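Action item from last meeting closed. Structure (244 res):
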């Protein structure tokens, strides 16, 4: 594993979100200071909602949104106003509340045929790599973004791939592992008792140097890897983050 992970445990999802917001603000500010621009790929699912609400409520100027390009780690193959859309969730919790220019929000067009959406998004995101921040969640099966254990193409290839989820909506468009591992900073947000067993398995795979689960295979080549977990999700890890 090229990336030594930092594991930060929090008593609950709220303090996890507060820590995540501080880290995102710092990473984006550092990118703007270094390169005049910053880029972030948002995660889908439910865990990031608390983080996005904090970013939306941050003091004006905490993030130079006019310098930030917003991408998405993955999307379901649904229209942007569909209840299952990751873009819709991000728009409702964050994007409509901050002054990020519309042309700097790079939505995965889930309403298009998936191969077409993936090809169009790949052209956009390829020009943006390495992303400064990639936010990720982890499913209780060890998936991350829309890279599922059964996803065949976890090796280097196009930056964006079409995958199949065992949970509807089945068709997904996802950043590929190679694009994720080029990030300058990857931050996992994992909360809830339902993730505890799989998180321990992911950490055991990483420690053994034999990662097979997608979440275990996230190992930024040159970037940082941070796991923000709550105590419930970390229940099967010891104080050092090793599986009990
Ligand atoms: C998605 C996400 C997915 C999510 C995990 C965890 O499209 O659903 O990309 O990878 O991060 O399934 O989801 P929760 O945060 O809801 O547990």
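Sequence:
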């Amino acid at each position: 594993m090229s990336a030594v992970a930092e594991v930060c445990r929090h008593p609950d999802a709220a303090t996890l979100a507060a820590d995540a917001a501080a880290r995102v603000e710092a990473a984006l500010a550092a990118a703007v200071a270094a390169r005049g621009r910053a880029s972030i790929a948002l995660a889908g699912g439910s865990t990031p909602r608390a983080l996005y609400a904090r970013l939306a409520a941050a003091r004006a100027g905490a993030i130079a949104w006019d310098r930030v390009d917003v991408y998405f780690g993955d999307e379901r193959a649904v229209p942007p106003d569909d209840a299952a859309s990751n873009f819709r969730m991000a728009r409702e919790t964050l994007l409509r509340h901050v002054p990020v220019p519309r042309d700097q929000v790079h939505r995965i067009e889930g309403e298009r045929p998936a191969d077409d959406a993936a090809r169009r998004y790949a052209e956009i995101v390829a020009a943006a790599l390495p992303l400064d921040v990639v936010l990720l969640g982890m499913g209780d099966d060890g998936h991350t973004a829309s890279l599922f254990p059964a996803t065949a193409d976890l090796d280097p290839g196009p930056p964006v791939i079409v995958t199949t989820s065992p949970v509807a909506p089945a068709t997904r468009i996802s950043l590929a592992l190679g694009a994720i591992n080029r990030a300058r900073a990857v931050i996992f947000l994992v909360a809830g008792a339902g993730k505890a067993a799989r998180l321990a398995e992911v950490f055991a795979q990483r420690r053994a140097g034999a990662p097979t689960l997608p979440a275990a295979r996230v190992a930024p080549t040159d970037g940082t890897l941070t796991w923000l977990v709550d105590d419930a999700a970390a229940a099967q890890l010891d104080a050092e983050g090793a599986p009990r």
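Note appended to the action item: The radius of gyration is 17 Å.
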